Every structure is written in structure tokens, then in C-alpha cells.
Amino acid sequence: MRKVLLTLATLTLSVLIGGDLTIYASDIESENNVIQIYEKNLETGEETRENIPVSTDENILNAESYQTETIAPNIIIGEDESVQVPDILLSTMPYSAIGRVKATYYDGTSATGTGFLFGPNDVATAAHVLYNRNGSIAETVSFWLPGTGGPVATYTGTQLAIPSEFMDNRDINYDWGMFHINSNIGNTNGFLGWTTDISVDTTVQVIGYPSDQMMMAGKQVKSVTSTLIKYDVDTRPGNSGSPVLNRSLDDQIVAIHTGGIDSEQLNRGTRVTSRMASVLSTYRNE
Questions:
Q1: How does pLDDT run across 186-225, given as a tens digit for each residue?
Q2: Is-contact 53 246, C-beta < 8 A?
Q3: Model confidence over 50-90: pLDDT tens digits?
Q4: Rounded CA gap, 245 and 223, in Å?
Q5: Stretch 112-141: mean pLDDT, rounded?
């Protein structure tokens, strides 16, 4: 994979006509149909930017789950209908691929959210779990399976990545991120696939860790845009980064939960787009 490393500000190119031409990340993305990703090595502290081509390959836009044999406000719509996932199910898919994320930031604060395995050692979550509202990036990241309500296995993040559009502009349309961990536990627990196929009235399920226990709730999609979906599924703080699953599609995610919209009494997630799918596929195959 060909990498284009950029400075954390802009890339200045010398052109034949003389003088300098400053090209911004958004310009590069639109011209070459790529998405720029900020990467940080959590072991060395090295920071880079990578341009990943956006694919139209159906095998990338729709990826199967792998099963083994074995922070914005969140909204409660009416009565809370979320239920605890029984302990007996925690070792089965899709629950075995979902865990709790803890990020400790450079400004000394920390926060927890939800993450899920999408590859052998690859975890996806919301970008705001990795890069907080104070503009501080995570210094360390931990991933706990199956969560603090039972026997806990803790894994350490080794490299994180979030879209530059979120890093630079706090763009909610790019509120998703990922990190590698120091174990291929996904080969044992299984990992989730994804699809760009979603429509209004589809029943979806949000599964995550608003507390020490894994909770799940499901209802219908109310709105779909090119980058976001909205649903009346009950969620709470801590659900950020939860997979939004279409259970009828072999546990494929259709979005990553990011928060709620008070004025609409709905919750929302960042939709799986060709850009997100291209990045997930690239990181799964590294």
C-alpha cells in the first residue's frame, strides 16, 4: 500500500510556474477520491497522515463477519427499553467481538466508550473516544473483553487512526476511528463485518457498554443521509463507539454510534460509507 505522509498542517508543493502552491487535505481527497487518515503510533508517539483510496469494490463495501465455533448526549426515547446481555451469550457472536474502550489523553483526562473487533487485532470506535472535545489525542488506549461485568481480558492499543476531517474540523460526519491492539484475539472471539446497505424502517440493534454491563436495544432507522443514520434506539453515555447492527445481515454493522439529538429525540450513528469501508478494509488487511 502506497502511503502519502503529510505534515500535520499542510503540504506545500513547488510548481513549475514558480512560487508555492498550498494544497489542503480536503483538496487532495476531492481530486484523487481518497480519504486522509491521521495515524499515531502509541508505542513511539510518531504521528503521520495517510491517504487511502476510496474503493467501489463490492467485496470491500460489504464485508462478512468472522465467527468461530465457539461523546455527545445519548437519548432515552420514552421508557428505557435497553436490556442487559445475559452472561451466557458473552462468548458468542456478535457479543464476543464487542468490548469497552478506555482512552487516557495528553491533557490528563480519561474517558470510556465502546469498541468492536472488525479484524483479528483491529478495533473500531467513535473518533471522539480517541480525540476528546478539548482537542487532546489519546496517549494510551485499552480494550476490555467482555467488559468489567465478568472475567476481563485487557488488550493494549498499539496504533490509532481517525479521519483528518474529524481531527482538523471536528466534522461529525467523520466521527469514527480505529486502533490496533497487541493480540489477534479476533481470530478466537470473531469479528464484525460491515455493509453500506441501509434504509429507513430497517430494524437495527445497538450493543455496547454504557455501564459495567453489556446492554443492547433495538428499533427502527428513522432517517438516512449520505453519512449519518438516525434511530429511536435507546442509548446512554458509554455507548459511543457501539456497533449499529443489522442483525438480519449476518451481524454486519451499518453505522458506529456517536450520540443523540435532543431536539429530535433520536440517536445517531456515523454511517458505513465507501470511505469508511475502504479504511476498515485497509486496516483489517494490514
A1: 999 999 999 999 999 999 999 999 877 898 888 889 999 9
A2: no
A3: 999 998 888 788 887 776 544 334 444 344 457 888 888 88
A4: 15
A5: 95
Is 168 in the active site?
Answer: yes
**Is the fold of 60-85+192-273 the same as that of 89-191+277-284?**
yes
Confirm whether 180 is a catalytic residue. Answer: no
User: How are the residues of the chain apportioned to helix, strand and coil, as percentages rounded to the nearest 5?
Assistant: 20, 40, 40
Spatial contact of 157 and 42, defined as CB atoms under 8 Å apart: yes
Q: Catalytic pick from 65, 240, 242, 281?
A: 240
Question: Of the listed 87, 168, 232, 250, which one is catalytic?
Answer: 168
- The per-residue pLDDT for range 83-119, each reduced to its tens digit, is 888 888 888 899 999 999 999 999 999 999 999 999 9
Contacts of 118 (CB under 8 A, 6+ apart): 124, 178, 186, 191, 192, 193, 194, 253, 280, 283, 284
| Catalytic residue (one of 96, 128, 257, 281) | 128
Res 14: pLDDT: 31
Q: Where are the domains of the chain?
A: 60-85+192-273, 89-191+277-284
The CATH architecture of the domain made up of 60-85+192-273 is Beta Barrel (2.40)
Which residue bears the cell 485497509?
A: 282
Query: In the CATH hierarchy, which top-level class contains the domain 89-191+277-284?
Result: mainly beta
Task: Check if 171 is active-site.
Answer: no
Reported as a single tens digit per residue, the pLDDT across 218-239 is: 888 999 999 999 988 766 667 8
What region, left, alpha or beta, does residue 18 occupy, with left being phi > 0 and alpha being psi -120 to 50 degrees?
left
